[in-house]
Amino acid sequence: MARPPPPAHRDEPAFVLHAYAYRETSLIVESFTRSHGRVAMVARGARRPRSELRGLLQAFQPLALSWAGAAELKTLVHAEWRGGLPLLGGAALLCGFYANELVLKLLVREDAHASLFDDYAQALSALAADATPAGQAAVLRRFEVQLLAAIGYAMNLTHEAGSDAPIVAAHLYHYAPDAGARMIASHVAEAPDTAPWLVRGATLVALATGHYPDADIASEAKRLMRQVLDHRLEARGMASRRIVRDLIALDERKQEGQA
């Protein structure tokens, strides 16, 4: 059996975003590394029962990865668990898969984003620490905003597009993903309807500060961020969203059967 090449990158802080079977005994691992961004590598023999890698290459756990190779698909040489994060479970696990899918689809390979890597690690820790739906939603909104800023699509959530006028909570705005928010009404008595890109100033302020005073603003923030992300994804669907919808539908059918 050929020896693996010496690692060109050693003990790089990383997380596994996704892993899938490759040939008979190996895995392709999509990783998010601190100094090299998203890196794809083959973990040879990782599916063998006695492989040291078999139990290590799990999502949402801090790792130190060493790899070699100049091609787009690198060779994983060594992996070490660094610990320090609790395991995600339940709704937090679904939120984690959603965050992973965003990173996979919006970050190009081998484009370093050290600050976003730290934001991602903090998001995982926050998801594990807060079991409430409202708290986990706030974590996801913050990470979505951070991710867009990291890839060059920062959202201006504090001022009107092309001016120094601050966003006013009581006003209604039209949000354009490539320009920003422009006021269309000086006062909003009720929440706007679901017309595309209409949003209250209070919702933009909430996204900027990370504080959501009520469920309506949280829901509107989720709707706006979904529209912005769909615009950046260019019609590429999110599998994690479909999974959540299916789970909600399944739960509703179970409740109907118990009624």
Which CATH class of the largest domain? Mainly Alpha
Give the count of helical stretches: 6
From the N-terminal CA to the C-terminal CA, the straight-line distance is 61 Å
CATH topology of the largest domain: de novo design (two linked rop proteins)
Radius of gyration: 21 Å
Mean pLDDT: 87
Number of strands: 8
Structural class: alpha+beta
Regions with little confidence, pLDDT below 50 for 5+ residues:
none
User: Could you state the CATH homologous superfamily of the largest domain?
Assistant: Recombination protein O, C-terminal domain
**Percent range for helical residues?**
25-40%
Q: Can you put this structure into words, describing what you see?
A:
This protein is an alpha+beta fold and 259 residues long. It folds into two domains: 9-81, Nucleic acid-binding proteins (OB fold (Dihydrolipoamide Acetyltransferase, E2P)), CATH 2.40.50.140; 91-248, Recombination protein O, C-terminal domain (de novo design (two linked rop proteins), Up-down Bundle). Helix content is 38%, strand content 22%. It contains six helices and eight strands, in the order E-E-E-E-E-H-H-H-E-E-E-H-H-H. The strands form two sheets. A five-stranded mixed beta barrel has the order 1-2-3-5-4. The protein has a three-stranded antiparallel β-sheet with strand order 7-6-8. Strand 2 (26-33) and strand 3 (37-43) form a beta hairpin. Helix 1 (91-106) runs antiparallel to helix 2 (114-129) and helix 2 packs antiparallel against helix 3 (133-150). The N and C termini lie far apart (61 Å). The mean pLDDT is 87.
